[in-house]
Specification:
The protein is mainly β. Helix content is 14%, strand content 41%. The chain contains 4 helices and 20 strands. The radius of gyration is 28 Å and the shape is elongated.
Length: 297
C-alpha cells in the first residue's frame, strides 16, 4: 500500500516541474525589445524606403553604458528587428543614425563607454559641397519579463536643404564662373541627442548656370539652431564682395521655419547682384529683403 501511494506522488511532482518550466518559457519570456524604423513626411506619408538606405543603432543599458551596435541595410530596418534579448529588466536607450555612411563616430567600448561620448560628424574635406541626408532618433524603452516589447522608432531629419540661385554674378568680374558663395558656421554633425555640434565646417556648394544665365545649386547642410552663427560670404575670384549673417536673418524672419519638427526644411535663397549692390531674399519673403553694398566699391 505504501508503494502504491508513493508512486503517484512522485509522478505528480515531476509533472509540476515540467509545467512550471513551460510556463516560464511561453508566458514569462526573458526581456526582449523588437523594433521597426519609420520616417513619415509632413503629409503623413511613409517615405522610409525612398529616403533611408542604412541604419546604425547603438544600445545603452539603464546606466547609459554602451552595450553593442546593430546595423541594417535595405529593407531590413523596416521589418521587425530584435535589438535586445535576454537582458536584465530596466530602461534601455537606443540611439539611431541613418544614412551616416562615411561619417565619423568615436569607437565605443562595450561595458566601458558612456552615451555622452557618442556623436556623428562629417569628415572635413575642405571642399564640402553637400552634407549627407542624415536621420536620427533617440528612444528609451522599458523591457521586462513577459510579453516582448514591440515598438516603432520614428526617425527625424537632421539636415536642411538649401536651394540657392544667383543672378547678375557676371557684373562683378565679367565671368559668373568666378562667383562663389561660402557658408561658414554650419555644424559638423550632431551629438547623441541629435543636437548640433559646436564644431563647424564650411560648405561651398557647386553652382551651375541654366539656360537663362541664372546660377543654381541645391545642397544639404546639417541642421543648425538659432544659437549657431551661420554666415554667407560672397566671393568673386578670391575677393570678398559681400557678407551676411544667415543665422541673424533667420532669427528675425524665420518664424516660418520649424527647427524642431524633424521633417523636411527647405530654405530658398536668391542673390541678385548689381555693380554696386547685392540683394538677398530668403524664401521669397519680400518684406525681409536684405540689401548690402558690394565691398570694395
Amino acid at each position: 500500500m505504501k508503494k502504491m501511494l508513493i508512486m503517484p506522488l512522485l509522478g505528480f511532482m515531476v509533472c509540476g516541474c515540467s509545467l512550471k518550466e513551460d510556463t516560464d518559457i511561453e508566458i514569462n519570456p526573458k526581456p526582449t525589445l523588437v523594433v521597426e524604423y519609420r520616417y513619415t513626411d509632413k503629409k503623413g506619408n511613409n517615405t522610409t524606403h525612398e529616403e533611408v538606405g542604412h541604419t546604425a543603432s547603438l544600445l545603452f543599458d539603464p546606466a547609459g553604458v554602451f552595450l553593442r551596435e546593430i546595423t541594417a541595410f535595405g529593407e531590413r530596418f523596416t521589418d521587425s528587428m530584435t535589438l535586445l534579448s535576454g537582458v536584465p529588466a530596466g530602461e534601455y536607450t537606443v540611439v539611431s543614425f541613418a544614412n551616416a555612411d562615411g561619417m565619423e563616430r568615436p569607437v565605443l567600448t562595450p561595458g566601458v563607454s558612456g552615451i555622452t561620448e557618442l556623436l556623428c560628424k562629417k569628415k572635413d574635406t575642405g571642399d564640402n559641397r553637400t552634407a549627407v541626408r542624415l536621420f536620427h532618433a533617440l528612444t528609451r524603452f522599458t523591457v521586462q519579463r513577459g510579453r516582448p516589447q514591440v515598438r516603432r522608432i520614428d526617425l527625424n531629419k537632421k539636415y536642411f536643404r538649401i536651394e540657392l540661385s544667383v543672378t547678375g554674378a557676371d557684373k562683378l568680374s565679367g565671368s559668373a564662373d568666378d562667383f562663389r558663395v561660402l557658408f561658414d558656421g554650419i555644424p559638423a554633425g550632431i551629438d547623441y541627442r541629435g543636437e548640433p555640434l559646436q564644431e563647424t565646417i564650411r560648405f561651398t556648394p557647386l553652382l551651375e548656370k541654366d539656360e537663362t544665365g541664372t546660377m543654381k545649386g541645391i545642397f544639404d547642410v546639417f541642421c543648425f539652431g538659432r544659437q549657431n552663427k551661420v554666415r554667407m560670404t560672397l566671393r568673386s575670384k578670391e575677393e570678398t564682395v559681400g557678407e551676411i549673417s544667415l543665422s541673424d536673418y533667420l532669427a528675425r524672419y524665420g518664424e516660418r521655419i520649424d527647427y524642431l519638427c524633424g521633417k523636411e526644411v527647405i530654405i530658398p535663397i536668391h542673390i541678385d547682384v548689381t555693380s554696386s549692390e547685392i540683394t538677398v531674399t530668403v524664401s521669397d519673403w519680400d518684406e525681409a529683403k536684405v540689401q548690402i553694398p558690394v565691398l570694395g566699391e
